[in-house]
Amino acid sequence: MSEDAANGKSHSAKGGGAMYEEGGVTVLRTSDLSEMLAAGTREVHEKAENSEFVQDFLRGRIRKELFKLGHVALYFTYSALEEEMERNKDHPQFAPLYFPHELHRRESLARDVQYFFGDDWQNQISVSPATERYVHRIHHIGQNDPVLLVAHAYTRYMGDLSGGQVLRKVAQRALKLPADGEGLSFYEFENIHSAKAFKQLYRSRMNELELDTATRERLVEEAVRAFDFNIEIFRELEEFGKTLQEDVFDAAPAHDREVQGDVSRCPYHAAKNAASGGSSYICQMAQTVLRNPSGQVLLAAWIAALAGLAAWYLM
């Protein structure tokens, strides 16, 4: 037996859980699926966070047109995801996570897109190449390997619940949207009274799924793939943003006490705190963006997508 094993020491495994030695043989001690997903997606989360688009995001360099296109991408993504969830609502490895009344976003996104594009919105929008690849993957697994829907559903919905309510207020202020919430339906989970309690329920249901080790590892791989699809969409928007006329941003935004708040509520702070033990730098940057009206549009538009990336660290 190794010295580490004799002393009760273990090492983190790439896919989650812990690795230890027993009789000279390396053994993987599995953990909850939610923990495996958090550990297995950490690297790709950092990749997404350090992308050019996200860095520009943190500097407050965004256009309103990108906000609208972000909602279009979300509309097509959720339309595909919820179609396949409906198809597989009785599948034993997915049925416990079927919460259409509480979670489904397609109809709310349709209302938002209609608000931004008008009554003829369905003839004005189209799926982008990057979003189409994401949608194709969701349909493929829904029809051929439904258990992998768990990775996509968990990534999206838990992220939406983690930061949506704060973002709703930011978007409403930045875009001067009506007080009744028109244009912000995506952020509203009217049938969930406590996001924290619901996330606990969802993770518990997921951890109780009867899955073998190989399937759990495939779910981690699929979650990484979901992050990669989001990164592709970021890159696509980066390129599109280069074709837009340069916006003018204030060099030194004035302080606004209304957007100051508890640092622990900042999604960036929460993500980095859980991942590295504490850092308020990113949150401070995000709060600086919030003090700039143009930056508020940026944060409101894309934190919805990035919330999915941060969700793994909000466990």
What can you tell me about this protein's structure?
With 315 residues, this protein is mainly alpha-helical. The protein has two domains: 1-31, no CATH class; 32-249 and 298-314, Heme oxygenase-like (Heme Oxygenase, Chain A). Helix content is 62%, strand content 4%. It is built from 15 helices and three strands. It has helices spanning 3-6, 33-40, 42-49, 52-59, 64-87, 100-103, 106-117, 121-124, 129-144, 149-175, 195-207, 213-241, 267-276, 281-290, 293-310; strands spanning 11-12, 18-22, 25-29. Strands 1-2-3 form a three-stranded antiparallel beta sheet, with no helix packed on it. Helix 5 packs parallel to helix 9, helix 9 runs antiparallel to helix 12 and helix 10 (149-175) packs parallel to helix 12. The protein starts with a helix and ends in a 5-residue tail after the last helix. The model is unreliable at 1-22, 25-29, 248-286 and 293-315 (pLDDT under 50).
Ordered list of secondary-structure elements with their pairings:
Elements lengths: L2 H4 L4 E2 L5 E5 L2 E5 L3 H8 L1 H8 L2 H8 L4 H24 L12 H4 L2 H12 L3 H4 L4 H16 L4 H27 L19 H13 L5 H29 L25 H10 L4 H10 L2 H18 L5
Antiparallel strand pairs: 1-2, 2-3
Protein name: heme oxygenase (biliverdin-producing)
EC number: 1.14.14.18
Organism: Danionella cerebrum
> How does the overall form come out from the CA principal axes?
globular
Q: What is the domain tally?
A: 2
CATH-defined topology of the largest domain: Heme Oxygenase, Chain A
Mean residue pLDDT: 74
Structural class based on helices, strands and sheet pairing: mainly alpha
What is the terminal separation in angstroms?
34 Å
**N-to-C order of helices and strands:** HEEEHHHHHHHHHHHHHH
Helix content: 55-70%
Largest sheet: 3 strands, antiparallel
Which strand order do you get reading across the main beta sheet?
A: 1-2-3
CATH superfamily of the largest domain: Heme oxygenase-like
Strand content is under 5%
Which blocks of ≥5 consecutive residues have pLDDT under 50? 1-22, 25-29, 248-286, 293-315
GO molecular function: heme binding; heme oxygenase (decyclizing) activity; metal ion binding
Pfam families: Heme_oxygenase (PF01126)
Protein name: heme oxygenase (biliverdin-producing)
Organism: Danionella cerebrum
